[in-house]
Amino acid sequence: MGQRPKALTPEKSPLHYWGWMVRELRNGRKISLRDLSETTFISHSQLAKLEHAERVPRLADAEVLDAALDARHLLIELWERIGKADVSERSHVSSSGVHVSKPSFDLATALSGQATSDDEGISVPCRLRDGQVVFVSLDRRALLRSGVGLGAGAAFGVGTPAVADPGAVAGLVRRARAASTYGSTPLEHLHKTRRRLIDSDNLVGPRQVLRTARAHIEVIQTLRREASGSDSRNLMELQTQFAEFTSWLYQDLGNNERAQYWLDRALTWSHGVDDNELTTYVMARKAQLAGDTRDLADVVDLAEAAQRMARPRSRLAAVGQTYASYGHALRGESSASARSIDQVHNALDSVASDPSPWGVWLNASYVEVHRAQGLEVMGKHADAADAFAAAIRSLPDDYHRDRGVYLAREAVAHAGAGAPEQAAAVGLDALAIAEDTGSGRIIHELARLDQGLTTWSQLPEVADFRSSFNAVLVHETEMDA
Questions:
Q1: Rounded Cα gap, residues 378 and 384, in angstroms
Q2: Mapping DSSP to helix (H, G, I), strand (E, B) and coil, where does residue 227 land?
Q3: How many separate domains does the chain show?
Q4: How far is CA 129 from the centre of its chain?
Q5: Fewest Cβ atoms nearer than 10 Å: which of 57, 107, 290, 383?
Q6: How much is the pLDDT for 206?
Q7: d(Cα 128, Cα 317) in Å, to the nearest integer?
Q8: Which residues of the chain have pLDDT under 70?
Q9: Distance, CA of 283 to chain centre
Q10: What is the distance between the alpha carbons of residues 52 and 234, in angstroms, rounded to a whole number?
Q11: Computed over its alpha carbons, how large is the radius of gyration of the chain?
């Protein structure tokens, strides 16, 4: 005999009502906790705690469960009521648990385990009292009232929410439906929009693009409710592509938790359209994110999974192997890293004619960047700096933001090689691009450079870079007032 489900008390609080509604939706759709766990990538035990109101849901939890249970935004709306209630046990970022005035150690560790809500604040780079730089989520109005960190506020889009308002989404839906007026279809219109957003991201960075990308996912979900057959499948495929792109935008902003969330959504949706190449590409992107976060447990395994899923000798197989090479370097496996990157270089000519639309940016310059990253991780700093410089010279002109990331990494390599003046000069070039684009990846690398140059702080070039970098950061001590 099965165990009787624990009685719930929805009348007790908005938190308890939210958990009760999850169970009601799940039971109504005849979905077990275990099946829901496999669909949402939330563990069985965590789902049980959410239903029993023993854990406060994050916005990410509400969004993924709302989609999995086809709740039509009900769970998200109910989640917002939790945030407005006086629930002492809540732990998401809108709670009073994290303030910039908290001690440095507490702040850094608290931030590492909390998600940033798209609507509640903005992630900006902050220098803590102990000197380290972390991304913190600050309320926009509080940041603007404080008058501090204006460089960071300008660069990272203070006042620009990540999610469009419902009226704006409705307008975009009407525009997509009216695409026939311009001799197009809604699907073609949305494909063109995605292409333009990608081009804009290359030039101006993620902050200016993110809200539009998020809004178009909602547009596609609205159109899918009215579609059927191949139209529905094609829209879901495009929704997957927008989710992967949204993940990339968050990754570049330095918000890796939200990046992981949207990659997980993209992976789930890709299975729904039965497109193996798209699923393989998303898996490769998960490996790339694992490399960026230096996740030694997953980076190689995910990259090799992408290689196994890809067609033999295809471009996507080479993409997976590129990320595997960096993963081996992170693990200190120098021979495996060098062997993998050489194999990718040797395969470039043969994969150039691959008709797949995925990974078309894989070229000698991109591979060389990853070789340079591996060299830097393994302590071969001078070789890494030379490799980065060579790769940057061959970048297309419109890869503005990526140039900034690679310049910052080159600067870190110069510092590691004992060339502080050159490191500072290259770092200033990267900082200019970071301020233009709001790229958190550039800031992350420049924080490493800032720390690596402390030994040479008295050099004028180094002092100039460190002062300029310091000016774009919010400071913990300034926010205490």
A1: 10
A2: coil
A3: 4
A4: 27
A5: 383
A6: 87
A7: 42
A8: 1-6, 11, 83-123, 137-173, 175, 177-184, 476-481
A9: 14
A10: 38
A11: 23
